[in-house]
Amino acid sequence: MSAELAFEARTTLGALQLEVALQVAPGECVALAGPSGAGKSSILRIVAGLLHPREGRVRCAQETWLDTDGGVDLAPDRRRCGYVFQEYALFAHLTAWQNVAFSMRQVPRRARRERALELLERFGMAALCDARPQTLSGGERQRVALARALARTPRVLLLDEPLSALDARTRAAASRELQAILAEVGVPALLVTHDFVEAAALGHRVGVIDGGRVVQEGTAAELAAAPATAFVADFTGAVVLTGAAWRDDGVTRVTLDGGGELTSTDHAEGAVAASIFPWEVTIEPAGEAAHGSTRNRLAAEVVSVTEIGGRVRVGLLTPQPLAAEVTRESLAELGLVPGRRVIASFKATATRITPR
Hints:
alpha+beta; Rossmann fold; CATH 2.40.50.100; 2 domains; six-stranded mixed beta sheet; five-stranded antiparallel beta sheet; 21 strands
């Protein structure tokens, strides 16, 4: 029976002070997103019993796996964790089915091949059951690793950067497959990634982790709409501008470091960071008169033009670096090339303010 995963740990990892508490419901995937060295993978290792914290507790399915106060520390093979390692960590000398069967210590030896083939069939890999990992594509290795993780009938699924080993061409399809698998398995899942977009796609909740602590937790939409810190704003893909804020006639005005001024409907005073998502920024020809409800207008120079899928990211030089996303049609219509002078405009309601 599936049950909630409850985790808390405090420990020192080199110069990093890790202090995290999490709860993951049955069938829920919590994605921990943050930069390298933030402590993400260490959390998975503590849950799995591969790393021993100074203080901590791990409970799942009414079982205590770790309680440093009570002297409980179950060995990894007693914790029933399905662990998908970064780069998948498949055994090169074993075939696909043998890699899956390796985790089936609770299954009689004579029944392991049949059970492994059933799992590989579930992932569309039965035809490659006798292939060795080095002959498989990145997406195929991922499926074998997932089948191996599920072979233990896990009570918790742990995924360490599950898409990072894939090339861009296969990552989108693999992400969709992984979403379907997580929904089907129905156990608590804890996923770590350095990519907020990946976390948003796979996690029911996202915890942004920095310096060993979860600095904000919520749905991806909540984090993007109301970042608690400048770090969270930057991590979710917003452009962050720094300055000093004061209240004026019911709104917040921000004098930007280096020059320029912004208006926001958020309340703040003192040293602040203003964040704006590139798709909220409109580019207008230099010298064009203000129109509509847009209150923030900054003179800018185009410094870069980069195509991203069906959109174009335009790097802008204002008193601080800014970026906008436009369509290819707008790019051609406005004649946006490096060196072009323009106006970057965005609404006060789209400008989020956080303390600095």
